[in-house]
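Summary of Year 1 activities. Much of the first year was spent building the evaluation harness for sequence design. The harness presents a backbone, in tokenized form, and records the residue chosen at every position. We chose the following record to illustrate the format because it has been used consistently in internal testing since the harness was completed.
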């Protein structure tokens, strides 16, 4: 979030959006990607290429939010006070020599994230990003598990982080970390933040489980078989994947091999895209004519399809192919669940070819071995009698 203004992918898309709308959309983007830049430095679209440092979502954004007036589109209320700077936070007993402190219940709830993590099209109200709503409708909300419980810990599953949050602060049983790890390891790699990139990969690896289901024990040469793969969202408190809709994609790379021979494959990356017929989990946005919008998000008018996996939900995908007559004794099945924040194709289009390599993260894998029986007896009999 600290880099939400300097993010090269954001900058490039912002320039396109600004040009296409004659600057009409600039303030909209800036309200979430540089709240302080917009409110106090009076940013304009022209500042996007400026050399001066422009803050993204910084400490002072979140710790000055005193209220929200809605659950999307930057509906936060900032209350900076030059004479008596006060930081709002989760502790009623926090004392700082540098600023006033005030307790804020809002900071302990997902609603503080909602205003930026729900994006609605400013002109036609199409829901574009819905991370907060996805969480709000989930069992995590019912159980009182907030965004903070997963994204403000040192890593997935660690909800015990004793210590101090400031040098002169109090010793506390649990300190909420500020890594805010999501899935975008590519961006962290771009900024040279190796540790953050690894944390993002850990988040992704904690999110899903994958298994083969209803597997046949044996298959026969010449037979048509169907292999089913079940993918469960076990760790993400919203859809898998969530967030930026034009890019985020999770997919199964499935391979069936026999005696080192490839029998079937689906989910390969070809020319910077996942190949046609890849079983992927993704949302497709469309324009007013129902055509897919790849990148020009301001043209979005509707959601065309959404195959993402709901929190604690699952999806089953299947593959049908023929076991060839020249196969060996076994059929080996390998499935890898992959994530990328953007296809390489989109990044190349935005930044130019060879500028940024997208990090494909292996979230989980599954494999199985099936015995291949020779072609059926009857078939053999017929050929021998002739
Ligand atoms: C995206 C919003 C956001 C940003 C940016 C942010 N914080 Fe926080 N911070 C929070 C929230 C939310 C909590 C409370 C979490 C809870 O208790 O559930 C918090 C808690 C804290 C706490 C108390 C931690 C504890 O558990 O005892 C301190 C101190 C703090 N923030 C300082 C900072 C500083 C310094 C920065 C900048 C380097 C910063 N924050 C940036 C949202 C943010
Ligand atoms: C003022 C707006 C704002 C608020 C409030 C805010 N965020 Fe964000 N957040 C952003 C923006 C903008 C980005 C995208 C930065 C980028 O990739 O350019 C982001 C990115 C993230 C990411 C990284 C996503 C990735 O792709 O890896 C996580 C995780 C995240 N936010 C969690 C939270 C949580 C949890 C809260 C509430 C405690 C919160 N945010 C509050 C604006 C906000
Ligand atoms: C139960 C734990 C959990 C909760 C609750 C949760 N998240 Fe996540 N979140 C994850 C995991 C795991 C990932 C990585 C997998 C993915 O990308 O979906 C993730 C990914 C993300 C991303 C990056 C998505 C991407 O691929 O670009 C954002 C942004 C985000 N979360 C924001 C939020 C916000 C905002 C909330 C609250 C409304 C929230 N999360 C609640 C676990 C959680
Ligand atoms: C309501 C808040 C909000 C508004 C308005 C908004 N964004 Fe974002 N944007 C986010 C959040 C939150 C994320 C992170 C989601 C995720 O990680 O999947 C994000 C992510 C992005 C990303 C992906 C960055 C990356 O490195 O993967 C791009 C690009 C982007 N926004 C561009 C824009 C542009 C251009 C506009 C204006 C047309 C805009 N955004 C308006 C909140 C907003």
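For this record, the design step produced the sequence shown next.
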């Amino acid at each position: 979030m600290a880099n939400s203004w300097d993010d090269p992918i954001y900058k490039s898309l912002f320039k396109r959006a600004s040009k296409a709308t004659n600057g009409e959309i600039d303030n909209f983007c800036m309200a979430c990607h540089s709240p302080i830049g917009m409110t106090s430095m009076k940013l304009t679209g022209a500042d996007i290429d400026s050399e001066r440092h422009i803050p993204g979502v910084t400490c002072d954004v979140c710790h000055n939010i005193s209220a929200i007036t809605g659950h999307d589109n930057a509906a936060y209320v900032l209350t900076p006070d030059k004479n008596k700077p006060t930081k709002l936070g989760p502790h009623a007993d926090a004392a700082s020599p540098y600023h006033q402190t005030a307790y804020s219940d809002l900071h302990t709830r997902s609603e503080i994230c909602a205003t930026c993590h729900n994006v609605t099209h400013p002109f036609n109200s199409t829901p574009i990003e819905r991370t907060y709503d996805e969480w709000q409708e989930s069992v995590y909300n019912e159980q009182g598990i907030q965004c903070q419980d997963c994204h403000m810990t040192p890593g997935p599953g660690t909800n015990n982080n004793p210590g101090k949050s400031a040098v002169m602060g109090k010793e506390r049983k649990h300190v909420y970390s500020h890594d805010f790890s999501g899935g975008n390891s590519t961006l962290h790699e771009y900024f040279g933040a190796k540790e953050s990139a690894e944390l993002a990969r850990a988040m992704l690896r904690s999110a899903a489980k994958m298994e083969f289901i209803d597997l046949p024990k044996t298959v026969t040469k010449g037979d048509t078989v169907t292999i089913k793969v079940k993918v469960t969202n076990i760790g993400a408190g919203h859809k898998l994947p969530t967030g930026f809709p034009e890019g985020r994609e999770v997919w199964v790379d499935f391979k069936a091999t026999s005696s080192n021979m490839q029998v079937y494959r689906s989910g390969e990356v070809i020319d910077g895209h996942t190949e046609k017929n890849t079983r992927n989990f993704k949302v497709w946005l469309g324009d007013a004519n129902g055509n897919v919008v790849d990148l020009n998000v301001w043209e979005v008018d509707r959601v065309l399809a959404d195959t993402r996996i709901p929190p604690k939900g699952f999806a089953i995908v299947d593959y049908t192919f023929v076991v060839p007559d020249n196969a060996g004794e076994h059929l080996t099945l390998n499935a890898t669940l992959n994530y990328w924040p953007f296809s390489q194709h989109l990044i190349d289009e935005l930044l130019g070819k060879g500028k940024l390599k997208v990090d494909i993260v292996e979230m989980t894998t599954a494999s199985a071995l099936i015995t291949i029986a020779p072609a059926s007896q009857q078939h053999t009999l017929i050929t021998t009698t002739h």
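The mean pLDDT is 94. Quantitative recovery figures across the full test set are reported in Table 2.
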